[in-house]
Amino acid sequence: MAATCVILDIGGVLEITPETGWVRRWEERLELPLGTVHERMRDVWQAGSVGSIGEREVHQQVAARLRLEAPQVEAFMADLWTEYLGTPNEELISYVRGLRGSCRLGILSNSFVGARERETALYHFDELVEQIVYSHEIGIEKPDPRAFEAACAGLEVRPESCLFIDDYAGNVEAARAAGMQAHLFEDNARTMMRIAAHLDAGPRVAGVDPPG
């Protein structure tokens, strides 16, 4: 029988990541119009999310495009990572930890170069699940179907045996289109109920996915 599997997103699911307003504060500090930081940095952010740029070059581009000195770059990137990493969703993390041994466990995350090192140090997600697939390491972001294929292949499971959990509806829809079952994360209680139902039912026929 195929292994039952649960694959989770990180930001907004395993991490609680509300907006901190850091970008606007930097724009005010630098006397830049609203939206200037993202406008100047958009291609760098995109490159970092698929690993076509390293952390050193990110820092260099921040310095050049925003005209910041080295200490300012460090402070700017610290603010970026503070929002990116958020705080741990302790309740859900504890629940997932209790699933180890009862199913295959993985993470599929749209990420940014440097995320693995920081999330491993802070949250030990590498000890929570069997495999973490980061977009900046495979060069592919959700909702590209190849991202879901990579997650399933790495865990050696069939898509129809997997429940994918994400806080973005577009990624949930894409996972279903890739043959997985999927759940839109809105709160811990409903998510844990959905995982429990998935595990109780065991592997299902592809395309059969109860609501939620």
Description:
This protein is an alpha/beta fold. The chain has two domains: 5-17 and 87-201, Rossmann fold; 22-85. The chain has eleven helices and seven strands. Helix 2 (36-49) packs antiparallel against helix 3 (55-66). The longest helix has 16 residues, at 70-85. It starts with a strand and ends in an 11-residue tail after the last helix.
Describe the protein's topology:
Elements: E1 5-8, E2 15-16, H1 22-29, H2 36-49, H3 55-66, H4 70-85, E3 87-88, H5 90-97, E4 104-109, H6 115-123, H7 125-128, E5 131-134, H8 135-138, H9 145-155, E6 162-166, H10 169-177, E7 181-184, H11 188-201
Parallel strand pairs: 1-4, 1-6, 4-5, 6-7
Antiparallel strand pairs: 2-3
Helix pairs in contact: 2-3
